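U., I forgot to send this yesterday:
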Amino acid sequence: MSEVEHDRFATEPEFGFDDEAAFVPSWFPEPLPRPEPGPPAPPVRLRLAPRTRPARPHALLPSEPALFPWLARRFAPGEATLFEGPTAAVEPVVELLYAGSALARGRISLLEGANRFHPYRIGELGRTLGVDATETLHRIRLARAFTAYQMVALVDGWAAEVRRRPPTLLVGHDLPALFAVDEILEDERAHLLRHVARTLGDLLRTVPVPLLLTLSPGGLARFPGLADDGPRWADWVAVARGPGTLTMRALRDDARLTLVPRPGNQRGIEEFGGGGPEEVIAWDVPLRRTARRSRNG
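Result:
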């Protein structure tokens, strides 16, 4: 499909790509209902783009702490990276990435599909890294939709905006979420999602910016067209959460990482390991939810 009918949108989608607003705080009045679980989706093969040499470095994340170089190696300009895992596991990693991007003075353009943007929590993480909370949020431009049809319109508008003013990183957070909630026929749902996938692919072929997509487990199989008609793939990272830890495993080089929250003045047994395939990084930002408001300074 080369075009999408826009006269079906009941209201105009909210957009946060203006010069004044850092983000659009348009929360839903109630949490989105969860769709009823269905039969497991068939597995989808993800073909990574060939790498004849290391990806060209880009100013995406700072060199310290050690978590950020590990994450930066998962990205490449003009290619997409997929973080797949439960919300409780993926969200802390993505929020740390937002804070790290602010520390590197990068700019993020975010499409939010699941109403899961937490400005106070992200601002607090930025403060932990030494960045003012307001500055952290100012470096994130957020666009949010209320219906699946509005999400399609936002993706089209996003592509046009990014070509005019490329950011440091593009993030599409759970873009198919509204398609599962809205009452859309399966054929139409697949038709629209394939359009979204092709639009993202066309965008990255013309703008050399890395793209991060986040999906719940099995989400790739529920996103028609993304694996074959979408962008080139830099990497796929499976994210899981255990008791007091976060684990990540990257497909491209089978790199494995465990995040262990620990105060900076505390040492752990991982320092004396034998250099096995799994890397353990002590992280002094608590992996917990907080409702405490951020304060400047």
